[in-house]
Design brief:
Number of strands: 0
Strand content: under 5%
Oligomer: single chain
Helix content: over 70%
Largest sheet: none
Radius of gyration: 55 Å
């Protein structure tokens, strides 16, 4: 009986010792797992913080890019507005020049008509005066007056022909000026279109460059 009791006590002692060792090992393993989980959690938190900082930097970069894009759009809009004002001024100036040339043409036509009317009237007066002179005056006086009238008519004809030549030269010069203005306007409009396309291409290229660089 005593021997059995000793064996039982020894067995009980061994069991308790084994339980204590198992409990100690379990606690150490649990501490190791807790430390590993804490380290893993800390690493994840640090990674998330780094990602947040990177996202903040990326957001700041996007804000700068958008601001630059808005500035470029504003500048292009302002430039297009100025170009539109210039085209409108050029169009008004061209219309004014055309109206001015038309007014000169009408004035020239009126002068020609007036000269023709005065020439026809002079011929009629001369014919009437000649018919009266042939009755009242002698052939010598009639001849002298006729020569004088012919000299006057020749002088007037020469003067009118010189004036007509001068007005014709002015008209041709004015037509050439109108053609030059139309050509300059077409070139100006073509230059505006090309500048607009270059501005749009530059905007697209700059936007593409900014997005590709990020």
């Amino acid at each position: 009986t005593n021997c059995f009791t000793v064996i039982l006590l020894t067995f009980q002692t061994n069991i308790l010792t084994e339980l204590k060792n198992w409990k100690f090992d379990f606690m150490q393993h649990h501490k190791l797992q807790m430390r590993q989980e804490k380290e893993k959690h800390a690493a994840q938190v640090k990674q998330l913080q780094n990602e947040v900082e990177n996202l903040k930097e990326l957001l700041h970069t996007y804000e700068i890019s958008i601001s630059r894009k808005d500035e470029v759009i504003t500048n292009l809009t302002r430039a297009l507005g100025k170009q539109k004002e210039r085209v409108e001024l050029m169009r008004k100036f061209s219309l004014w020049r055309i109206q001015h040339v038309k007014a000169k043409q009408e004035e020239y036509a009126n002068r020609i008509a007036d000269a023709h009317f005065r020439t026809a009237l002079m011929k009629k007066v001369w014919a009437a005066w000649r018919s009266v002179s042939e009755v009242k005056w002698k052939d010598k006086v009639t001849r002298a007056c006729q020569l004088r009238a012919e000299d006057v008519c020749i002088q007037l004809t020469n003067d009118y022909e010189a004036k007509i030549a001068e007005l014709t030269a002015t008209l041709e010069q004015t037509k050439a000026e109108i053609l030059r203005l139309h050509s300059e306007r077409d070139q100006y409009e073509d230059t505006m279109k090309k500048a607009f396309m270059r501005g749009v291409c530059a905007l697209n290229l700059e936007a593409m460059t900014m997005f590709q660089s990020k």
